[in-house]
Amino acid sequence: MPQGSSWHMPMPDNPSNKEAAMYLPDYYEFCCRVKTVAGHQALETIPDLLSDMGAQKPMIVTDQGVSGAGLVDTVMTAMAGKVTPGPVADDVPPDSDLRMVNGLASVYRENGCDAIIAVGGGSVLDTAKAVNILVSEGSDDLMAFTGANALKRKLKPLIAIPTTAGTGSEVTIVAVIADPDKRRKMLFTSPFLLPDAAVIDSRMTLTLPPHITAPTGMDALSHAVEAYTCLAKNPLSDAHALEAIELISTHLVNTVKNPGDRDGRLALATAATLAGIAFSNSMVGMVHTLGHSVGSVCHVPHGTCMAILLPYGLEYNMHKVEDRIAELLFPLAGSEVYASTRPHDRATAAISLIRKLNQDLFDATNGRHCTAFNQVKTPEGHPAVCSRDLEAIARTALGDGSIFYNPEELDFDDCMLVLSAAWDGTPLDRSKVKQG
Amino acid sequence: MEDFVEIKPGGAPLKRIYLNLMLWFVGRAVQAASKVDPAVRQEFDSMPMGFIFSLGAFPSGPWMVVEKDANGRVKYLGQRVKDRNIDLRMTLKSMDALLLLFTFQESTPVSNARNRLFVEGEVPHACTVVRILDMVQVYLLPKFIAKRAIKRYPRWSLKRHTLDRIQVNIRTLIGC
Asked: This protein's superkingdom (chain B) (predicted)?
């Protein structure tokens, strides 16, 4: 675990480390204009936030799990007497799709709403963003806005209240929506998808069970790690990513063991937001490329995919970005471990620590946190990912936009190599990774 | 806003000539490679019939436009984007950004990572087009330059590196 409350990277030991530590691209862009309100009593600011946006009748978008846990009631109580909310749409599924988005857009229009409050995890927040596209653009065709920068103007006011400390969607320019006909997740990226405000309140994650807290925390870690190691990294996203990694490394296992730890909850929620800011500005790579595809084909929760795939993605990219992976050891393990580890062992040590983190979470959740795809079960108890699914997953991965940002090329055979190892739960045989 | 006058960037005639030439060459090479290389052909097979994509610079080009026609044949359609129903537009933010790409100072992924490239259309198709362009660059460029343009120089068979490369280049020059 890291020591000290903030990290300061020691001076590099050799010229190659120096180059990596001072990475400064010729050109980069960074944008995060989301007003972030965070704390143990942050929800109470929502009426003022809505008032600042000129909104009076927000539609609440959420899912039944969040609604059933009483979290929407907590939000309603915080707004009571100051805001008259519109309808509460609480039927967003874990993998929201085009039909759901169109349905919710109709509800918004029929009720004359003028803003959206999204209360939930990644699927809810992304669904709210996609609904906002349709209601702001006056369209029924979400596919017309897929891809990068297809939106050209500001959307309706949107307040994001995350109930999982993982997705970071409250501060990202990204929305991912499934296209059930093509069994593919469609990516939408635009600065206009940034919510107007993110409200991070520890009450929203206090009831999250340990077996959900664990993979959502690993999801946030995967955002930060890929933001730091992939092609679009930049100094500003790096700063957010490293802080997020340290917070997660310090608090994740403790919070999974002590779910009522309010400070730990706030730390993890803050880490998820930091990681969201990081990856929103530097994007993510193959861990997400493959993870999105496992989610599309086999409906495995996103955080579980990220937890399983993260060490494999780093092993696969090691020959291209070893220095960057080595630097992760500092926020993951702290200054003493970093200093006492030989420079050429640091990258391997960082990957081992991430594997250990997964194992600790496996132990802390009595085996409910998966470390390999062959452990993942459907709600009915059947294997969620069969080895025969891997080819379909690999083919789907080749069409995922995050593949552009991975440092190393990834073809069908490469995907199969990584997926097979991640299914078995055995470390990647790096001698089989193609280098050109 | 309806009556605004679009100001087109002027100057830099040499850049424009160079880029026009490169796009013309690459567009014809895509057509040629689709006839010679099974892997390129396989990538096109995943596109719908009548699919048209373009690559160029904002706001006024130059461009290259390629179509997979109703019979599945791949054709370089030239540089005109106006009045065409283009399914996938891959646009560099400026002519300078396109120049970085076509002088091989930046690969397509790095250009994308630096927010110089924007895509209108379905992302899976953009991934396919990038893979096709990568293979075409390997055919057209010497290894030491191609390695700058793509993430990983492929280990192709000797036939692909020699006979197929000659075929692609000849077909590109004569336009068939």
From this structure: Bacteria
Classify domain B13-168 at the CATH class level: alpha beta
Separation between Cα atoms, residue A265 and residue A188, nearest integer Å:
29
A237-285 pLDDT tens trace: 999 999 999 999 999 999 999 999 999 999 999 999 999 999 999 999 9
Per-residue pLDDT of A68-124, as tens digits, reads 999 999 999 999 999 999 999 999 998 788 999 999 999 999 999 999 999 999 899
Cβ atoms of residues A59 and A116 within 8 Å: yes
Closest CB from A29, A147, A434 relative to B123: A147
Number of other CB atoms surrounding residue B81 within 10 Å: 19
Q: How far is B127 from chain A (nearest CA, A)?
A: 6
Beta strands A174-179 and A184-189, pairing class? antiparallel
How far is A218 from B33, CA to CA, in rounded Å? Answer: 43
Residue ranges of the domains in chain B? 13-168
Distance between CA atoms of residues B62 and A353, nearest Å: 50
Q: Is the ipTM of this complex over 0.85?
A: yes
| Residue A20 DSSP SS3 | helix
Residue from A205, A402, A221, A405 nearest A306 by CA: A221
Task: Place A181 in a pLDDT band, splitting at 50, 70 and 90.
Answer: confident
Of all residues in chain A, the one with the smallest CA distance to B150 is A409
Sort out which chain A residues have CB atoms less than 8 A from B118's CB and list them.
Answer: 148-149
Which residues of chain B make contact with A28, given a CB cutoff of 8 A? Answer: 114-115
